[in-house]
Amino acid sequence: MxxxxxxxxxxxxxxxxxGMDWLRIGAFALLILYHIGMVFxxxxxxxxxxxxxxxxxxxxxxLTPWRLALLFAVSGYASAKLFVRTxxxxxxxxxRSARLLVPLAFGMAVFxxxxxxVRVRGGGYAPGYLHFWAVDYWRVGAFHGVxxxxxxxxxxxxxxxxYTLGLGAVLALGWRAAPLAAWLxxxxxxxxxxxVALATVKLALMFVVAERxxxxxxxxxxxxxxxxxGLGFVLAGHRTxxxxxxxxxxxxxxxxxxxxxxxVGIEVxxxxxxxxxxxxxxxxxxxxxxxxxxxxxxLFQAADRWLNRDHAWRGPxxxxxxxxxxxxxxxxxxxxxxxxxxxxxxxxEFAILAVASLAACFAGYAIGSRVGWIGTVxxxxxx
Length: 383
Fold this sequence. Notes:
Elements (H helix, E strand, L loop, with lengths): L5 H4 L8 H21 L18 H29 L3 H22 L1 H11 L6 H8 L4 E3 L2 E3 L6 H18 L5 H7 L4 H18 L12 H19 L4 H6 L1 H21 L8 H29 L7 H26 L6 H25 L1 H6 L6
């Protein structure tokens, strides 16, 4: 099934945008640091330090609205670059499914069980890991206070695959992105129009559907992440949008800072599991959308303006990003579960968790680079 909708004709001649590679590398590095911070922050997480630090609320609340939206937008950009190389929808979907579903299946069988075992151990589960993996991991329903099955951190891969299927469907139908790109290029629409549209949908869903993670239940999440993925795809395909992107650079910074102040203020006032009044909750959700899209505008433009240059480290780091995402979470959880009872000081514990996470990423990359099938199952792209 070969379709060449307008999106391909608008693609820039040079396929590799080094700035977007650096942005993707930075986004995933930030994700690892964020997950380490969750061990010590007041919010609930898989493994928690006995002492939490309210000082982490403000910086982490400032990151929360845009870190995942950025990952989906960057993934949409990368999908456009992959599609233009072989603008056949069937080939594109087959290739992307292999790249996403093989690591997802391997991670669900090998890495996620470790995390789930740590979870149920916290609920009083006594048997060892091998018994858990052979008998109890494959159950459905609540078990020792934990719901089964679970994607754990691999939910991002499942969502990304679902959005890729949706993208394939609209491409197969002959979708023309040029009219949307032309409309967004007018004035400052590229900044405010996505914010208004996404915030409207988000608020419409807010008190109707639960904000619950799950491929078939997270409608509030899909209402934000799927459009971010699609907008990243459109930005990659239409260089005519990049001059307007440059023109909204300063307003986008101002929007991000203002929205971030609102999000941080509400989070500081209602920390942890405390719920703000409905009006403040609605303001918080709208501010998060505004910050997410404005930060994407800022960071895409920064990557295009200042980071679009190659370096000897770029290629290896770009290849290591997806394996690092697959591996770091499990390594972090095991390291935290094992070392937190030892009572190390905050900085020492943070350093231990950072070293354990990075060591797992480095080991996975080193082994995957030498053993082809291991590289494939942990998401390493072919050279």
